[in-house]
Design goal:
Elements lengths: L4 H4 L12 H12 L6 E5 L6 H13 L13 H7 L6 E5 L6 H10 L10 E6 L6 H12 L5 E7 L7 H4 L3 E4 L5 H14 L3 E2 L1 H10 L4 H11 L5 E2 L1 H8 L4 H13 L2 H13 L4 H20 L11 H11 L4 H17 L6 H13 L7 H18 L4 H10 L5 H7 L15 H14 L3 E2 L3 H11 L1 H6 L4 E5 L2 E5 L3 H7 L2 H15 L4 E4 L11 H12 L7
C-alpha cells in the first residue's frame, strides 16, 4: 500500500526536525541532564511539528540507549512506540474525545506504573477542544502528577486553554518553518525519491504551504499524480495559483492605468479555471512585497522569493509611491471581502481592477482627497493669474477628470486674506462671499466640529478657539478672532483637516470662506469730547 510522503518522511529524531532549533535543542538538553518536566504544552500552527516532536520526546525519554537526547531508533522501546504497539504511550485526539469521561479514563490509568517503558506519556492533540469539565478533571492530575507520568499537550489555539492549565505546563511555541528550510527539505526528499523537482517549483510549494512542512509534502504528492517531473507550471496548476508573470502584468497595468491589459490577463486566468479569490489574495501578497521594498532598508529578510523575483519587485517599486501601494491594497482587500457576497467573483474582481486602473472612477473619501491634493499641486505650480490660464491647464487634463476639476475648483478659492493684491479669480470669490453672507445662518454644531478637529490637528483647533461659523448654501463662512486661523488655512493640508472635521459632523462637504463683519463707525459724543478738553485744561467737571 502506498504511503503518503508526509507519513513516510515524518522525522524520527530531533535532528530530523527542521525549522524549530529553539525547541529541539531545549528538549534534548532536558533529556541529557535528566531534568524532565511532568507537563509540556506545544503551541503552533498546523504542520510545524508539534505532534512529531511529542512522539520523538516520548521515544527519547524511554529509549534504552539514547544518543545526545535523541532516541536510538533501534531498541525495542523505540520500535514499539514508532509502530504504536506499546500501551505506555497514549495519543488522544481531543477534537473527537473531549468529554469528562475521556479525561477521567486517562487520569485513572495514570496512577498505574508503566508496563514496559520508564514513563507513561500522554499526548493530547488539539487540547483546546476539551470541554470545561474535561479541563477541570485534568487539572488535579497536572497539579500532583505521579513521578512516572508525562503529559504533552498540543494546540493551535492556546488562548482557548484555561490559565490554570497553562500555568502548570512548560510552554514551547513552534514557529512557521521558513520557506528556504522547506524548499531545502523538499529537494532532499525529491533526491531520495528520484523526483525531478525544479528549484522554482520547490520554492513555490514552500511559499504556498505557509510554513507547514506537512502541507508542502501533500502538495508535492499531488504533483506526482502525472509523473515524476515536477515543474513550476505543474505546481501552479495543482495549487490553483496564478503564474507570477500574470500577476506582474496586472501590477504593471495598474501602475500604467491600462485597464484593458489587466482585464485581458484576468480573462486568460479565468479560462484556465483559476480561482479569482486566490488570485486576489496573491495580488495582495505581491503588493505587500512591494510595500516592504519601499518601506525597509533590508526587505530581503522578510521576502521569501528568489533573487530574480526580488529584482523584478525592486524595479516595480520605482514606478509608484508608497501611499499609492497602500491605497491599492485597501481596494483589493475591500473587493476580497465583497467576493463572499456577490454572485460572480470574476465580475467583482474585474470591477476592482477597473477602479484601480481608473482613479477618477473611485469616489471613496481617500481617493477624492488624493485628487484634490493633486489639483492643488497643479494650481500651486502654475501660478494662475487669470481664468484663461486656468482653463488652458484644465484642457490638458484627462477628459474624464474634467468634471471633477469643475466641481473642485472652488476648493482652492476658499479662504484668501493675503495682504498683496488679489487676483481676478480671488476678487470674484470675495464678491460671491459677500453675497452669501446675506442669507448665512449660524452653525449650531460648530463647537462639535472644533472638538473633532482636535483629532486631526491640535494647532488648527486652538487657532479657531472662540470662533463662530455660518452656513450659506454650499459654504461654511468662518468668523475667527485670530488672524493666525486664516494663515493656517492658506495651507492645503490644514484646509483638508477642517473639511474632514466638518464632513464628519454634518455628513456634507462644504466649501470654506471668511465671514466679514460690517464695521460700524462710532459717532463722537460732543459732551464726552468737551469733558476731555476741560480735564486737559485742569477744570474739574462734575455731574452738575
Amino acid at each position: 500500500m502506498y504511503q503518503a510522503l508526509y507519513r513516510k518522511w515524518r522525522p524520527k529524531s530531533f535532528s530530523d526536525v527542521i525549522g524549530q532549533p529553539h525547541i529541539t535543542k531545549t528538549l534534548q538538553n532536558e533529556i541529557t541532564s535528566n531534568r524532565i518536566g511532568h507537563a509540556y504544552l506545544f503551541i503552533g500552527s498546523r504542520g510545524t511539528g508539534k505532534t512529531t516532536c511529542a512522539k520523538i520526546f516520548a521515544k527519547a525519554v524511554n529509549c534504552l540507549e539514547p544518543k545526545g537526547g535523541n532516541p536510538c531508533e533501534k531498541c525495542e522501546i523505540c520500535l514499539d512506540i514508532e509502530d504504536s504497539k506499546i500501551m505506555d504511550v497514549v495519543e488522544l485526539d481531543a477534537a473527537s474525545n473531549n468529554g469528562v469521561n475521556d479525561i477521567r479514563g486517562i487520569c485513572e490509568s495514570a496512577g498505574f506504573t508503566a508496563a514496559k517503558a520508564k514513563y507513561r506519556v500522554y499526548i493530547i492533540d488539539e487540547v483546546h477542544m476539551l470541554s470545561a469539565g474535561a479541563f477541570n478533571a485534568l487539572l488535579k492530575t497536572l497539579e500532583e502528577p505521579p513521578a512516572h507520568v508525562i503529559f504533552i499537550l498540543a494546540t493551535t489555539e492556546a488562548h482557548k486553554i484555561p490559565v490554570t492549565i497553562l500555568s502548570r505546563c512548560q510552554k514551547f511555541e513552534f514557529h512557521k518553518i521558513p520557506v528556504e528550510d522547506i524548499a531545502k527539505r523538499l529537494n532532499f526528499i525529491a533526491n531520495q525519491e528520484n523526483i525531478e523537482l525544479e528549484p522554482k517549483a520547490g520554492t513555490l510549494i514552500a511559499r504556498v504551504s505557509d510554513g507547514a512542512m506537512r502541507d508542502a509534502l501533500t502538495i508535492l504528492d499531488k504533483c506526482l499524480g502525472d509523473g515524476k517531473a515536477v515543474t513550476l507550471q505543474k505546481v501552479e496548476k495543482t495549487v490553483g495559483v496564478a503564474s507570477r508573470e500574470y500577476l506582474l502584468n496586472i501590477c504593471e497595468a495598474i501602475f500604467q492605468q491600462k485597464a484593458d491589459v489587466a482585464l485581458d490577463a484576468v480573462d486568460k486566468l479565468n479560462k484556465d479555471s483559476k480561482d479569482m479569490v486566490l488570485i486576489c489574495e496573491e495580488l495582495i501578497g505581491l503588493f505587500r512585497d512591494i510595500m516592504l521594498v519601499k518601506s525597509m532598508n533590508e526587505p530581503r529578510t522578510l521576502l521569501n522569493i528568489a533573487d530574480e523575483d526580488f529584482q523584478q519587485l525592486y524595479e516595480l517599486s520605482k514606478k509608484t509611491e508608497l501611499s499609492k501601494v497602500i491605497d491599492i491594497m485597501d481596494t483589493l482587500e475591500s473587493s476580497l471581502e465583497r467576493m463572499t457576497k456577490v454572485c460572480s467573483f470574476k465580475i467583482e474582481f474585474e470591477m476592482c481592477l477597473v477602479r484601480l486602473c481608473s482613479p477618477e472612477l473611485s469616489f471613496t473619501e481617500k481617493s477624492i482627497i488624493n485628487r484634490l491634493e493633486k489639483l492643488e499641486k497643479i494650481i500651486a505650480d502654475k501660478n494662475f493669474g487669470s481664468r484663461e490660464k486656468l482653463e488652458s491647464v484644465k484642457q490638458k487634463l484627462n477628459p474624464l477628470k474634467t468634471a471633477h476639476v469643475e466641481k473642485d475648483l472652488s476648493q482652492f478659492e476658499d479662504i484668501s486674506t493675503k495682504t498683496n493684491e488679489p487676483s481676478a479669480l480671488e476678487k470674484q470669490a470675495f464678491f460671491e462671499m459677500d453675497e452669501l453672507q446675506k442669507n448665512a445662518q449660524k452653525m449650531t454644531n460648530w463647537q462639535t466640529v472644533l472638538d473633532v478637529l482636535k483629532e486631526y490637528s491640535q494647532t488648527v483647533a486652538i487657532a479657531f478657539k472662540g470662533s463662530t461659523a455660518y452656513i450659506s448654501g454650499q459654504f461654511v463662512l468662518i468668523d475667527a478672532p485670530k488672524e493666525m486661523a486664516f494663515e493656517l488655512l492658506r495651507k492645503s493640508s490644514q484646509r483638508d483637516k477642517l473639511r474632514r472635521a466638518i464632513m464628519e459632523v454634518t455628513g456634507k462637504s462644504y466649501k470654506l470662506g471668511p465671514y466679514k463683519k460690517e464695521k460700524k463707525q462710532k459717532k463722537d459724543d460732543p459732551l464726552k469730547k468737551l469733558a476731555e478738553l476741560a480735564k486737559d485744561l485742569g477744570v474739574n467737571v462734575t455731574a452738575e
